[in-house]
Amino acid sequence: MVKTDIRVIYGDTDQMGVVYYGNYLRYFEAGRTEYLRAVGIRYRDVETQFQVFLPVVEAHVSYHKPARFDDLLSVETVLDRVGRASARFAYRLVREGMALASGHTLHACVDRAGSVTPLPAELAARLRTNSPE
Amino acid sequence: MVKTDIRVIYGDTDQMGVVYYGNYLRYFEAGRTEYLRAVGIRYRDVETQFQVFLPVVEAHVSYHKPARFDDLLSVETVLDRVGRASARFAYRLVREGMALASGHTLHACVDRAGSVTPLPAELAARLRTNSPE
Amino acid sequence: MVKTDIRVIYGDTDQMGVVYYGNYLRYFEAGRTEYLRAVGIRYRDVETQFQVFLPVVEAHVSYHKPARFDDLLSVETVLDRVGRASARFAYRLVREGMALASGHTLHACVDRAGSVTPLPAELAARLRTNSPE
Amino acid sequence: MVKTDIRVIYGDTDQMGVVYYGNYLRYFEAGRTEYLRAVGIRYRDVETQFQVFLPVVEAHVSYHKPARFDDLLSVETVLDRVGRASARFAYRLVREGMALASGHTLHACVDRAGSVTPLPAELAARLRTNSPE
Questions:
Q1: Quick one: pLDDT at residue C60?
Q2: Which residues from C are below 8 Å from B43, CB to CB?
Q3: Are C10 and B31 in contact (CB under 8 A)?
Q4: Which chains would you list as touching C if contact means 3+ CB atom pairs under 8 Å?
Q5: What is the pLDDT of residues B36-70, one digit of tens each?
């Protein structure tokens, strides 16, 4: 599991005084990128070196408690499945030990033309290493 | 079912050249607001007149094909369930007859203090009218 | 001058109950794209056909009155200067005849490598046509 | 001057492969909030304790070099003017010593009704303290 800190800015809130529901997917993305960095992958390199992309094919968020302006949040990210041409991440958004939201994203591996393609061996190996603690 | 047109702006895209995955929830929101308007409810009034809010407690998106800059999209919104203190909307995002994404949002009805409260009778009645065609 | 209608969504607002200040630049962008379309240019084509980009090098916004959720706004866009390798647009954001904000953006013409390059002749000619009314 | 670190996420970029021009105002906001925190003010408290808001009445950005996905940026924020009912912040967005953008925001002090009101004495005093180094 990898923790990523997020400070909620004003621009993330909406007029209900809480974080806008779509912005949780931005926080999940930040968590995902840091997860990859923790296992030695810069997402920047995924696209330039491996010539593949990992677009999201499914996203799910359960909202438990609202996040608010200036909250210091932590995104806890795990990789919960690696397929031949896919990977699935799960997330918990936490404030002072309390889960505010949870969810997952499912990613396909596609080439530059957008066709599904197997995960490059080196990339799959890195993802399959034991999750960092 | 209610259709809402959306023009994709540059700011909605990301460096993959397609719409960023979190922005689909913005499009769904636009569809939801127009759905409510079509059955005679301005969401603005939900908050000021009825003194309730309808925060999202669950959101799900399945991404089928990428939406791109300058696409003219249509969000097709239906209300697929009204509970005592909840409502669920389903969405299809369509470009020239092709579904690019689909999903749903589940909403709780809460009062100003954030406690779950039954949908006000008038609001529930409007939501339960036959869906506009 | 070209008018572009914008419906303010919930996701555009912040906890002050008004549109977040950064989102006005999204509205300006929508106005700019429609201005170009009105003079026969699809911005999509600028990048693919002419192989140039028009990145913003300067942006300015004056905020007069707040825009709010569900407002139906109109962006009034004019092209107020075309240089050898630049173009400048000016904007007014209007609600029911009242200007809520005004501003401008200055754009450089750059090639794929990011170097400043003269506006392609055909593009400049289109921009220099009398402004559409 | 107060430095605030920002990690660029994918959702901040656009299809030109760089940070979308409107998102720099999000970065400036993050810098401004941290500036206030450094002089002992939580913006959250400005609204709840002092019962005033500091909406932006003018924003300006000059874009020098593009910021890119995964860049670790630093927003350098200074308060360059405090008026009776206004305050002005200036910003530099820096990556490894190189300024990518600069700009300023001018803020009015308004009460809950939106009327301009003098900066509360305690708030003004804190702002007028020598800038933190």
A1: 98
A2: 10, 69-70
A3: no
A4: A, B, D
A5: 999 999 998 898 889 999 999 999 999 999 999 99
Give the active site residue among A14, A45, A80, A111.
Answer: A14
pLDDT of C49 strictly over 80: yes
Average pLDDT over residues A39-57: 91
A22 touches chain C (CB under 8 A): yes
Question: What is the per-residue burial (b if ≥16 Cβ within 10 Å, else e) of B24-58?
Answer: bbbbbbbbbbbbbbbbebebbebbeebebbbbbbb
CB C47 within 8 A of CB C57: no
- Judge: B11–D17 Cβ closer than 8 Å, yes or no: no
pLDDT for the residue D130: 60
D20 touches chain B (CB under 8 A): yes
Token digits of residue D12: 């901040």
Domain count, chain A: 1
- How many A×C Cβ pairs under 8 Å? 30
Q: Are C91 and C28 in contact, with CB atoms under 8 Å apart?
A: yes
Q: What pLDDT digit, counting tens, does each position of D91-115 carry?
A: 999 999 999 999 999 999 999 888 9
Q: What's the predicted TM-score (pTM) here?
A: 0.96
In three-state secondary structure terms, B101 is: strand
Q: Which of C52, D93, B65 is nearest to A114 (CA)?
A: B65
In order, the DSSP letters of chain C are -EEEEEEPPGGGB-TTSSB-GGGHHHHHHHHHHHHHHHTT--HHHHHHTS-EE--EEEEEEEE-S---TT-EEEEEEEEEEE-SSEEEEEEEEEETTEEEEEEEEEEE-EETTS-B-PPPHHHHHHHHSPPP-
CATH (domain of C62):
3.10.129.10
The predicted complex's ipTM stands at 0.94
D133 falls within a domain: no
Task: Using CB atoms, pick whichever of D9, D10, D42 lies closest to residue A70.
Answer: D42
Nearest residue of B to residue C26 by CA position?
B11
If we measure between CA atoms, which residue out of C118, A60, C93, A52 comes closest to residue B62? A60
DSSP one-letter code for A120:
P
Catalytic-labelled residue, pool C5, C14, C80, C111: C14
Taking 60 as the threshold, does the pLDDT of residue C133 lie above it? no
Return the partners of chain B (3 or more C-beta pairs < 8 Å).
Answer: A, C, D
Distance to chain B for D21, nearest Cα, Å: 8
Contact D10 A43 (CB under 8 A): yes
> For residue B96, what are the domain limits?
2-128
